[in-house]
């Protein structure tokens, strides 16, 4: 322990043992790639059924393209802590799937007649089922599997990205994509079509449309879908008062980005708030076929249209102050003297660091729950110059609750310092560099 003038600093060299990959911010899953999120609420929990991107290897999938051999399912009670149940279905467990193609694309799952029906697109090994993608069904007694696949895909459905809607009057419809969006009613057994597939009218004529998601709110059916208006996919939505349309395109739900060609979404209401689940290539900036699921809040206008969702790194949920707060998933930051980089560019799953490199540079992370009484701050930092950090609550010009001198260090180290003041409840956290030095921060926590 050493004295540093106006405060006491304890330096503890720690070998940090990271516990799991729980993540309150975007992207939400950090230990694998996840894409095309289909999200459902079952028994008060949110279940996330994403595609599972992997990297193709020689003889295993097509290099430079989507590569998916199985599905995982995740659940959460608070949108902050996610549990991974592992593989619920893999291509080599489905008799009709061509498992040389590694193409288990965007799935969906619904609960009906006491069972969970998991719908997934994949290419069939037998041309009798048609060329291109078919859609299969696997059934389970639990939302997290194990799922048992049907021996054959759904008859007369050719395409990708199934989404199943259950209307308040008990009808079920399946939507899927094949350049356009198709819809058909499902039979009661959920395994076959009750009506001929038909194209949803009223959607854009040009630019690939795929990944349909449909939900109902106050008697209005909202169809959301990715559409290539320019170079890459943006999310759009259309509204109708009937599940089969006619739909009217209402506008853009999320703008396209140049970095990731695809985007895919689902919209869900959980504990009174609407959320948009979507994906971006956060963990794979140089290869956009390895994607990661994100969440942001979604809001309706008084006339029932949807406000455009602006993607954030902060995501949703409240972060407990005693957890490792990943300030690189920031809400706001100063214009200068801040950059975000991977902790290890060769293993992006390790996450990011914040680099403060100018006097008064700051970064703000919203919605931290400080609970009842906390006395210390912990900062995991690395600095070749040393530097002094100030911690404030709420915003940059608010009172300082801690000061920490980060000494010169060549290894990631956790530094502890007593709080100068404590304010209970939920606050934004601001970390500011006081001098023209260079300090990298992995995370901040309180105890
Ligand atoms: O994940 C493979 C495909 O990319 C999906 O099925 C599409 O919607 C697009 O996200």
Characterise this structure.
It is a single chain. The chain has 447 residues and is an all-beta fold. It has two domains: 2-13 and 318-446, Sandwich (Jelly Rolls); 25-298, Tachylectin-2, Chain A (5 Propeller). Helices cover 0% and strands 46% of the residues. It is built from no helices and 32 strands. It has strands spanning 2-4, 7-12, 35-42, 45-51, 70-76, 83-90, 108-112, 115-123, 133-140, 148-149, 160-166, 172-178, 180-185, 198-199, 213-217, 220-228, 233-240, 248-254, 266-270, 273-280, 292-298, 319-320, 332-333, 338-342, 352-356, 362-369, 376-383, 387-393, 400-406, 409-418, 426-433, 439-446. The strands form seven sheets. It has a seven-stranded antiparallel sheet with strand order 1-2-30-27-32-25-24, with no helix packed on it. A hairpin with a 2-residue loop joins strand 7 and strand 8 (115-123). It is elongated and about 70 Å long. The two termini are 18 Å apart. Residues 35-36, 51, 66, 105-106, 160-161, 210-211, 262, 264 line the site of beta-L-arabinofuranose (FUB).
Distinctive features:
447 residues; Jelly Rolls; Tachylectin-2, Chain A; 2 domains; 6-stranded mixed beta sheet; 32 strands; 0% helix; elongated; binds beta-L-arabinofuranose
Q: Which CATH class of the largest domain?
A: Mainly Beta
Query: Which consecutive residue ranges, at least 5 long each, have pLDDT under 50?
Result: 1-22
The helix tally amounts to 0
Number of separate domains: 2
Helix content class:
under 10%
In short:
0% of the residues lie in helices and 46% in strands. By secondary structure, the chain is an all-beta fold.
């Amino acid at each position: 322990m050493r004295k540093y003038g106006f405060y006491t600093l304890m330096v503890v060299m720690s070998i940090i043992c990271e516990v799991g990959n729980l993540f309150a911010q975007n992207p939400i899953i950090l230990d694998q790639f996840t894409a095309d999120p289909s999200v459902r609420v079952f028994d008060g929990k949110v279940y996330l059924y994403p595609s599972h991107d992997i990297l193709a290897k020689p003889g295993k999938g097509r290099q430079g393209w989507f590569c998916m051999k199985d599905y995982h399912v995740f659940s959460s009670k608070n949108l902050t802590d996610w549990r991974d149940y592992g593989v619920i279905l893999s291509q080599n467990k489905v008799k009709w799937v061509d498992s040389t193609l590694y193409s288990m694309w965007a799935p969906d799952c619904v609960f009906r007649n006491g069972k969970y029906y998991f719908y997934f697109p994949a290419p069939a090994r037998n041309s009798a089922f048609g060329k291109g993608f078919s859609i299969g069904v696997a059934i389970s007694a639990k939302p997290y599997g194990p799922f048992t696949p049907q021996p054959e895909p759904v008859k007369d459905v050719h395409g990708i990205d199934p989404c199943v809607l259950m209307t308040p009057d008990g009808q079920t419809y399946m939507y899927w994509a094949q350049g356009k969006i198709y819809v058909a009613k499902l039979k009661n057994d959920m395994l076959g079509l009750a009506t001929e597939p038909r194209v949803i009218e009223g959607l854009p004529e040009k630019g690939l449309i795929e990944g349909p998601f449909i939900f109902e709110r106050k008697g209005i059916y909202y169809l959301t879908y990715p559409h290539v208006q320019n170079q890459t996919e943006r999310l759009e939505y259309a509204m109708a008062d009937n599940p089969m349309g006619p739909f009217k395109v209402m506008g853009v739900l999320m703008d396209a980005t140049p970095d990731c060609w695809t985007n895919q979404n689902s919209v869900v209401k959980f504990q009174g708030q609407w959320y948009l689940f979507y994906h971006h290539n956060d963990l794979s900036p140089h290869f956009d076929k390895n994607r990661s699921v994100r969440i942001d809040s979604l809001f309706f206008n008084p006339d029932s249209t949807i406000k455009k969702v602006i993607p954030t790194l902060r995501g949703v949920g409240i972060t407990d102050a005693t957890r490792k707060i990943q300030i690189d998933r920031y809400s706001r930051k100063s214009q200068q003297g801040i950059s975000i980089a991977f902790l290890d560019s060769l293993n992006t799953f390790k996450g990011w660091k914040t680099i403060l490199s100018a006097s008064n540079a700051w970064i703000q992370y919203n919605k931290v729950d400080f609970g009842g009484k906390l006395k210390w701050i912990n900062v995991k930092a690395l600095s070749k110059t040393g530097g002094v950090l100030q911690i404030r609550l709420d915003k940059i010009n608010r009172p300082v609750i801690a000061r920490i001198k980060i000494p010169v260090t060549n290894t990631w180290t956790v530094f502890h310092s007593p709080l100068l003041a404590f304010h209970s409840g939920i606050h934004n956290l601001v970390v500011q560099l006081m001098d023209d030095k260079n300090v990298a921060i992995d995370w901040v926590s309180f105890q």
